[in-house]
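yo

u said u wanted the structure for the complex thing, so here. seqs first:
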Amino acid sequence: MATRRVRFTFEPDMIREPVIYQLGHKFQVVTDIRMADVDEGIGWVVLELDGEPEEIERSLAWARELGVRIDSTLGDVVEG
Amino acid sequence: MSFERALRCRECGREYELKPIFSCEFCFGPLEVAYDYDGIREAISTDSIERGPASLWRYAPLLPVDPQYKVDIGTGFTPLIRADRLAKRLGLDTLWLKNDTTNPTWSFKDRVVSMAIARARQFGFTAMACASTGNLANSVSAHSAAAGMEAFVFIPNDLEIGKVIGSAIYAPTLVMVEGNYDDVNRLCTELAGSRPWAFVNINVRPFYAEGSRTLSFEVAEQLGWRTPAHCVAPMASGSLFTKIWKGFQELHKVGLLADEPRIRMSGAQAAGCSPISTAFAQGTLNFVPQKPNTIARSLAIGNPADGYYALKVMEETGGGAEMATDEEIVEGIKLLAETEGIFAETAGGVTIACLQKLVASGAIRRDEETVAFITGGGLKTIEAVEGKLIEPVRVPANAEAFDAALAARQARLVGVGGA
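structre next:
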């Protein structure tokens, strides 16, 4: 089992889609939302994913395919 | 003696003991050092500071580390220069430049790395690490060499030669990573979780970031223990920007500033990587990460860890944000050099170009005493201005040829000026 912390960013046309619910049903991955902010223009969710590493990767690839932007919760680690 | 008390989550306020950790276990919010301000107030005074060394260690009681672990290569207490010629060109009554190009590795990163390496030694680490587009790599390499510590420095494989050599000279384990910006990010995030290193902007980030506060400590002291009306600083992760504001507030908390700071804080980004400035322009605190595409590689952070907090500082202080195109960045570098004799790297060009826009738009009023932060030296990014400067006059070695060439040059410059 592995754990990944990620930040999902949703463009306006994605905000009404139940992406996290679907991700939890399509894949053997447990989703745990820790922080979120959603308004009319944009939404983001910080969540923890628990599951087998390959399954987590598959679930993230699926979400990316839907149009969700996925980033590290650390922010970028490459600095100036 | 150190007055750090705990690590505190910036989101939920939970506190943790002082360890090499960086995010809250409950909400994943970033951790920040909390201090015993009453203790600092007792231990520090303007007199004690003024008797201290001409480096950032003169503010030791305000720093998150026991000074016995410091690695001092002469960082900080950089010049604050009154910039009348540039002020006149921009339309400001009073402008100051905080010139951090004079640090040991020619950028403000020496401030944050000074904190990270001292705290890493205090924790017992024997190896430092970072992922960088240049300035941070140079500083981690230099400080590690001075401390006799191992250093693992990850850089993109297409970095400017000045920044590559500026790290290699200190003999770290320098790793040029093949692939794009996201690949470097992914590799370093993975390694940071599995290696016994002090990764300066990951597991010791709460301590590292505190080093930027020394910029505001110095500005306040150099102005005679008072604050300016407006500050303009470059934004990459947004950490420098937020810590400058935090530093001014802390000086008031510990009694070194009589009045509560009333400073408007404005941020500068490159148009090719402007998640924070774009969010400000859209009136939201929610930035959208971007893929960087700018010559200002020292500011090329597409997913800024402190972006939200930088936007909150702008909101809280009534400040603003601007962005500069690559052409405007080059013009900013040239304007700073030609008016004030300071050769800045691309981040300095961003700051000056954005300052110019903020004044032109009225976001900064003519009578607001302003400090602009110049965070890195220009010799690291000569590629940015190569071929964009006035060509030298080439002459055979005789006076007649020189006079003829000089007359031709002056005629050409008048022609350009009059066009």
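Residues 109-211 of chain B form a domain with the Rossmann fold fold (CATH 3.40.50.1100). Chain B touches chain A through 48 residues (CB under 8 Å).
cya
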